[in-house]
Amino acid sequence: MEALDPTLFLWLLALIAVAAMLYSSVGHGGASGYLAAMALFGVSASLMKPAALAMNILVAGLVFVRLWRAGFFNARLFWPFALGSIPLAFLGGAIQLHERAYQFLVAAALLVAAWRLLLASHEPPTREAPHPGVALPVGAGLGFVSGLTGVGGGIFLSPLLLFLRWANMRTTAAVSAAFILINSVAGLAGLFTAGVTLPHGLPWMMLAALSGAVVGSELAVRRLAPVRLRQLLGVVLVIAAVKMFITA
């Protein structure tokens, strides 16, 4: 991070702020956006994961509090997924992949995130929440991938909740924000046990993310982010994923 030219670092901060605004508007912490921004600027893979998880905690925490206070959070839907994910997110965070393998895995995660953002938004009719016997192992799998990549898991959980009609869009946003928060904390704790330290430029990056999240969380409570903006972000994620595939 500190090796970046100051002007390039300012551009990175601007992209982080935009990503935080757009992601928080749909209940996400923004990790895949931060990873995409860092990939575009050539930040080392060893720095990307802890930075993304730390920013995720800040942004997802703010979004969750706003949506919880607005009455959109469904604890009964959330806890089975969370209980399955926490230990596996910690384990995934503690695993240090080879840089090339990590780049391929993150690139795949970015494509999943892009697919989620490029989908047309709709408000599906909801049905009963899944049985804990279903939610626990699903949460465990999502938690492990979240810890490995540093994405928090919301990009995987939210389309699942919507596709299977377990929640409407704002409840999905609230549950996803809480899921991202607990997985990011667990993943970062796992990283610390592996001896990883936080990047020096992280405070500035967290400040940029927070500034975007203040705007995005307001959108999440009042109205979802405009479709065109989410689709534009999806295109950026595809570009970043392709870059990571090529340079891996």
Polypeptide structure, described:
The chain is mostly helical. The chain has one domain (6-121, 128-247). The protein contains 10 helices and no strands. It has helices spanning 6-24, 31-40, 45-69, 75-94, 99-118, 132-149, 154-163, 169-193, 202-222, 227-247. Helix 4 (75-94) packs parallel to helix 6.
Quick overview:
The chain is mostly helical and 248 residues long.
**What is the H/E order?**
HHHHHHHHHH
- SS-derived structural category: mainly alpha
The proportion of residues forming helix, as a percent range, comes to: over 70%
**Large-scale geometry:** globular
Tell me about the biggest sheet? Answer: none
**How large a portion of the residues is in β-strands, by DSSP E?**
under 5%
**Total strands:** 0
Q: What integer is the average pLDDT?
A: 84
Oligomer: single chain
Radius of gyration: 16 Å
Contiguous runs where pLDDT drops below 50 for at least 5 residues? none
